[in-house]
């Protein structure tokens, strides 16, 4: 599934997420390393030494990603 947002695209599969930013930067994370925070529609990746977060534009994008990944929203 592909979710377009103001900063680029989020490409979601059941096992992983790839974020392609409009600036040319790509962010990658396995689903086990992701957390969704409903306050602010934030996707957080924490794989130990590598951490990043992404703020989505709206709740619809957030809910679509959560459903596709099958993970709970915190």
Topology of this protein?
Layout: E1 2-5, E2 8-12, E3 16-21, E4 26-30, E5 34-37, E6 42-46, E7 51-55, H1 59-69
Antiparallel strand pairs: 1-2, 2-3, 3-4, 5-6, 6-7
Q: Tell me the number of helical segments per DSSP (H or I, 4 or more residues long).
A: 1
Low-confidence stretches: none
Helix- and strand-based class? mainly beta
Number of strands: 7
What integer is the average pLDDT?
92
Sheet with the most strands: spatial strand order? 1-2-3-4
Alpha carbon gap, first and last residue: 22 Å
Q: Give the helices and strands as they follow along the chain.
A: EEEEEEEH
Broad shape: globular
Largest sheet: 4 strands, antiparallel
Q: What share of residues is helical?
A: 10-25%
- Taken as a percent bin, the fraction of beta residues is over 45%
**Radius of gyration, whole Å:** 11 Å
Name its key features.
74 residues, mainly beta, 4-stranded antiparallel β-sheet, 1 helix, 46% strand, globular
Task: Summarize the model shown.
This protein has 74 residues and is mainly beta.
Outline the structure in words.
This protein is mainly β. Helices cover 15% and strands 46% of the residues. It is built from 1 helix and 7 strands; from the N terminus they run E-E-E-E-E-E-E-H. It has one helix spanning 59-69; strands spanning 2-5, 8-12, 16-21, 26-30, 34-37, 42-46, 51-55. The strands form 2 sheets. Strands 1-2-3-4 form a 4-stranded antiparallel β-sheet, covered by helices on one side. Strand 2 and strand 3 (16-21) form a beta hairpin. It is globular, with a radius of gyration of 11 Å. The model has no long low-confidence stretch (mean pLDDT 92).
